[in-house]
Specification:
Layout (H helix, E strand, L loop, with lengths): L2 H19 L1 H11 L1 H12 L2 H13 L4 H6 L1 E2 L6 E2 L14
Antiparallel strand pairs: 1-2
Bound molecules: zinc ion.
């Protein structure tokens, strides 16, 4: 553990403690703004069990790693995934 990571750990712990100490003030401030009532209303109307299930299914089924998908290529000959830039495929040796 380096000195910089220790500094970040101490600063994060202090900020977390300050946040926990003032959590009730923050919640009462949100209550005065009406955010909590709005969140309860939206949760009751729109976050039903079915919608939560559909959202979870979409998050699981949708392909992740779009950044990898943008950077990666597939070989035109053997359809192998090419993760690094190069002129030739690692599997079959054909030119990409
Ligand atoms: Zn190939």
């Amino acid at each position: 553990m380096t000195l910089a990571s220790r500094k970040w750990l101490v600063a994060g712990s202090v900020l977390l403690l300050i946040g926990f100490a003032n959590l009730s003030m923050f919640v009462s401030w949100l209550e005065t703004l009406g955010v909590l009532a709005w969140a309860r209303r939206v949760s009751d109307q729109y976050l039903t069990g079915t919608s939560v299930t559909v959202i979870a299914a979409l998050l699981i089924l949708l392909p992740s790693g779009t950044v990898i998908a943008i950077c990666a290529q597939r070989c035109h000959v053997c359809d192998a995934m090419l993760l690094r830039r190069g002129k030739y495929c690692n599997e079959c040796g054909s030119r990409v």
